[in-house]
Specification:
Chain lengths: ~290, ~290
């Protein structure tokens, strides 16, 4: 890989560029983005040059699509005519089935390999990019054929993923979407619903709620800070799985509501099941003791 | 205040003792607790001596009840006969109406002032106590009469609350319980329900969920680590308000579910309302940019 083109010079695209440089990449990094993002990315030396879509596609050995899912879907219809046959196109979209299907259909002149780094923060934009964004984080890859990971371009890309500190992990695209419906999209909607509920209840006296807020409320409402601009596409391309996750969650909440009203002691196994899972997700023995 | 008695040498009681010492308290701190907790608290020099319930009540100028709510309710029926008339009894229970009512009825020989420090962490026990636990945190006080805060004992206690860095704030006991039903008890049940939902869905392949977990899931499931031993009492003494909060939350989730299935663009105002509240709760302009 001599030339990388980052489509979408935002938080993830910018962080990927910074991470590559930190990991020793010495080739050229082109940016394709809005004028404002490109100006900022150049000023921060996150990209080396700005380029048009066609120019970047024509020059890049690695094309990294880091836009919202809807933008990725749109650009996949246009890229094929411009790419080098030896190039690899990959993406960082939060849902994978729609993107992989689109790429299967439109990208015929070079390889496509879907990806999803499980990383981010609630602040958007290239100004918030960090070279350490992917360190220690799972980087999902969704090859459609076994040989997808065995090409030279794919091997080199996966090697860079390891060098930036991420942990590559292979998922089927549809299974990925089903899993993140529960591990990412449901927590987002849960946090949004919680914050919206409180916003309504304390509409006329918000300071009362703010004064009575512990760090627990901060943690559970942090995802609610996320932008709908990104979530609209994620939810639109995974609505069936997300609706299923919401149904499961509402069912569980209704069960908790029922037990609380009649036999609160029966909530103990629910709390214990939940605590056991919350501990497992942390991948440790509970040594994390953040205040709330 | 020359002698303080801590009933319940656990996370909150131990932290209050440590905070007092750090803030310059030079009197004696007695501990009333289980043998195991007392041994640990003595070893860590968090308390100066162990005492029986009657002995501690008889000697203390400030009696600090830091047990689970059910234990506080029980001990309030026994303390009155033993206390000094000049003493102040206060508590750190997470719900206030039931405790204040009980104290009104049983504590006649000295003053009682209800309290609730909005502080804690998911680890229990005196070994996790910290002198800085209350720094910068709201400390709710629930006087029942105006003069409750004007007695010498109350003034001295509030002065210590300020010296340990907490921010005293007066609430009506019932209103406190209604507010924390939304700001604390609902987030707890939301986190528990979320973790229980995922535990069930991934029962046969938990590693798949763990691998796909971002920091967002960690944050939203952290409260789920809390012990039911504490929550059983909290929920039992605030069930009406919590049921109401659950109903509001389920209603909001169902609304989100409906819009997602029919007109996803209509979710934008919900996301914006939620983000606005989540930002306000942080009391800043969004400079917190924790990764997820």
């Amino acid at each position: 890989v001599k030339t990388v083109a980052i489509f979408g010079a935002g938080l993830i695209g910018g962080s990927f560029a910074l991470a590559l440089k930190r990991a020793g990449f010495t080739g050229e990094i082109l940016g394709v983005s809005s004028n404002a993002a490109l100006t900022e990315a150049l000023r921060l030396r996150i990209i080396d040059a700005a380029a048009s879509e066609e120019q970047a596609a024509a020059e890049a050995d690695l094309i990294y699509l880091a836009q919202p899912v809807g933008r990725i879907l749109a650009i996949l219809e246009r890229l094929n005519a411009h790419v080098k046959p030896s190039a690899l196109i990959t993406d960082a979209g939060s849902t994978k089935a729609a993107i992989v299907e689109k790429a299967e259909r439109y990208i015929t002149r070079c390889q496509f390999l879907g990806g999803h780094p499980l990383a981010g923060k609630e602040t958007r934009g290239v100004g918030a990019a960090e070279a350490e964004m992917f360190a220690g984080r799972t980087y999902v890859l969704t090859p459609t054929r076994e040989r997808d990971l065995e090409t030279g371009a794919a091997r080199e890309f996966v090697d860079w993923l390891r060098r930036i500190g991420s942990i590559p992990r292979v998922y089927d695209a549809r299974r990925h979407d089903e899993v993140v419906a529960f591990t990412s999209h449901l927590p987002q909607l849960c946090s949004t619903a919680l914050a919206a509920t409180l916003a309504e209840v304390f509409a006329s006296g918000r300071s009362e709620a703010e004064a009575a807020s512990g760090l627990g409320l901060r943690d559970t409402t942090r995802l609610a800070l996320s932008s709908f601009d990104i979530w609209a596409d994620i939810l639109a391309t995974n609505s069936k799985a997300v609706l299923g996750a919401l149904d499961e969650f509402i069912r569980r909440l209704s069960e908790i509501r029922g037990k609380l009203g009649s036999e609160p002691a029966e909530l103990r196994p629910v709390f214990e099941l939940a605590a056991d899972f919350a501990l497992a997700v942390r991948g440790d023995t509970g040594t994390e003791t953040k205040k709330f």
